[in-house]
Structure formats: structure tokens, C-alpha cells
Amino acid sequence: MVSEKLHSDPAGLVYKRVLLKISGEALMGEQNYGIDVEVARTVAEELKGIHERGVQVAVVVGGGNIFRGVSKSAGKMDRSAADYIGMLATVMNAVVLQDALEKVGVNTRVMSAIDIPQLAEPFIRRRAVRHLEKDRVVIFAAGTGNPYFTTDSAAALRALEIKANIILKATKVEGVYSADPMLDSSATRYDCITYQEVLERQLKVMDASAISLCMDNNLPIIVFNMRQPGNIGRVVAGENVGTKVCLSK
User: CB–CB of 86/148 below 8 Å?
Assistant: First the structure.
């Protein structure tokens, strides 16, 4: 079982080690494709803010802004081949985010589940934890390294491996809703919801395998709006931001 909260902290932190899951689409900004470096810089500034307060930060980044294995652009490709291309897309995004972080003065390491030594270190759990302990932000790329698994599943897996206190799921809406708020104006936001409710109602928080993994290990998730400046800092300080997904309300 993962310990969710800490004892009182002089910096006002509730979560000391967090894993941020950010989609590739979030890095597109207002574009239809690719990477908006200004968005990457904004994310880097947000992460720098909590890093300077003593939070140990890991990131799992998606690749949907470039290629997604289950997208229409994959056409009739073999699913495994398409997923590996998607993994390469996450490596590209990870390197962009690393560059943005280092430009604002944050030491960073990219660790990849597939072997690309010129760009990233191989993922080794103990080394990843050591990087965090040395105050480096660690960016996990290439998902789990296996086809048929999403970067949501990678986020749950890596968070458990590094013993993160919580997963922060960055989205473009304020939290988890009863329906898609972009399509249904009557959708209501939940302040708190259980893993079981997410699965039963088929809410698109993370994929079912990721939610099940978090539920089995009591790893909480907070779904929040990444576009609202300062939200990451508010989350790690324990403020009521977004929607919390946990075992019981």
C-alpha cells in the first residue's frame, strides 16, 4: 500500500513525491499537431515552482500530439508496430520537456523503457529513485516499453515503482465529470469519486487497467486542469482542486 500523505511539513506540502501524467495533446497548445514550445515552457515553470518547494517530481508524458497507436492515422498497421511508433513519439516529447526544464534551471533526467542511449537513460527503478533523491526531475518516456499498454498504465506502474504519494493527471478540464463537459453543458463535476465508480460508470479518467492497478495498491489520483496557472502548487499543498479518485469518499 502506498502512503498517501505525510506528517506536517514546514513548506505546507501534503505530497512529497508526485508523478505527473501529462498527455501529448497538452503539449500541442492551440495547434492541431506537434509541440508548442511555449506550452512546454509553461509546464516547466509550473514544475519548477513545486520542485523548489521540495517536492520530488516524476513525469510520464504521452505522445498523442505526434502519433497514437490506436488513432486513425495508424490505419491498418500492425498494432504492435503502431504502438512502438507511439512510444518513440513520447521520447520526442520527453526531450522537449527536458529542454524546457533545464532552460529554467531544473536538473532533469529522461529515462526510457526502450533503449535509446543517445537520448535517454534506460529505466532502472533504483536509479530513478536516486535521481529523485538528488532533486532531479525524472521524465519517463516510451510508456511501459510494451505494446497494448497506454501511457496511463505506464503512469500507474512508474508511480508505484518509485513509491509516489499520488498521481496528478493533468487535463484541460477542471476534474472528473458525469459526462464530457465539452459536449454536455449539464455535466456535473465530482469533488471525490472512488475507483470502483470510475470503472462502473466508464468515466474517462485513465484506462481501466491503470485505474485497477491504482485501486489494488491504494494509490490516489487527482485529476485537475493543467491550464489554470498555479494548480499544481495548489494540489501538492492539499487544496481542494480538481477531483480526487481514491478507495472511499
Answer: no
Average pLDDT over residues 173-199: 88
- Which pLDDT does position 6 carry in this prediction? 42
Residue 44 lies in a domain: yes
Question: Which pLDDT value is given to residue 248?
Answer: 80
pLDDT score, position 242:
93
Q: How far is CA 94 from the centre of its chain?
A: 12
Q: Which domain holds residue 99?
A: 17-246
The total number of structural domains that make up the chain: 1
**Distances in whole angstroms, Cα of residue 128 to Cα of each of 5, 12, 83, 193, 238:** 21, 25, 24, 31, 25
pLDDT tens string 119-150: 999 999 999 999 999 999 999 999 999 999 99
- We report the CATH number of the domain holding residue 73 as 3.40.1160.10
Which CB contacts under 8 angstroms, 24+ apart, belong to 87-90?
A: 87/63, 87/113, 87/114, 87/141, 87/142, 87/143, 87/145, 88/63, 88/114, 88/142, 89/24, 89/63, 89/64, 89/65, 90/24, 90/61, 90/62, 90/63, 90/141, 90/142, 90/143, 90/151
